[in-house]
Specification:
This protein is mainly alpha-helical. It is built from eight helices and no strands.
């Protein structure tokens, strides 16, 4: 007996089971993403970073460049940013104190010197910067006519 194979029908007129299975899986994934859009978006999309994080050394370099260019206000701001990140580096305090004295703010320089000397009491550079701030503060008081206060500051 001869079994004849009927001629296969091409193209097929109905989708295969595998195609239907793939479409059902894709529809399920799409439905899940549609139902949980915000959760999926938060998982896929990272949060934006508003500013680049900089190191205190970078702020110190910027402060030195600003000081070299004569922009003392920007240099003071850069030193303050460096100190905000690294609060225990006496070099940053010393440079900021010297700039504040140069800028005519010896009172603020004295406050910073006291803070810096709490964690580095034997640092010669800080002691010298504090002494220059005391002298500048005494000169400031003398220029305002407060000689009794001036003598106290010089002592």
């Amino acid at each position: 007996m001869l079994i004849r194979d009927p001629k296969p029908r091409y193209p097929r007129y109905s989708p295969s089971c595998f195609t239907i299975l793939i479409l059902m899986v894709l529809a399920g994934i799409g439905g899940f993403m549609f139902a949980n859009f915000q959760t999926v978006a938060d998982a896929v999309r990272p949060d934006p970073v508003p500013t680049v994080t900089q190191s205190p050394a970078n702020y110190a370099i910027r402060a030195k460049l600003f000081d070299r260019d004569g922009e003392i206000g920007n240099a003071i701001t850069a030193w303050e940013d460096a100190i905000a990140i690294d609060t225990e580096n006496p070099r940053y305090y010393q440079s900021l104190i010297e700039l504040l004295v140069e800028d005519g703010q010896p009172g603020r320089a004295l406050e910073l010197a006291e803070i810096a000397l709490e964690f580095a009491p034997d640092d010669d550079g800080l002691l010298q910067a504090k002494a220059s701030a005391h002298l500048a503060y005494g000169d400031l008081l003398a220029s305002h006519g407060q000689s009794s206060q001036q003598q106290y500051i010089y002592a």
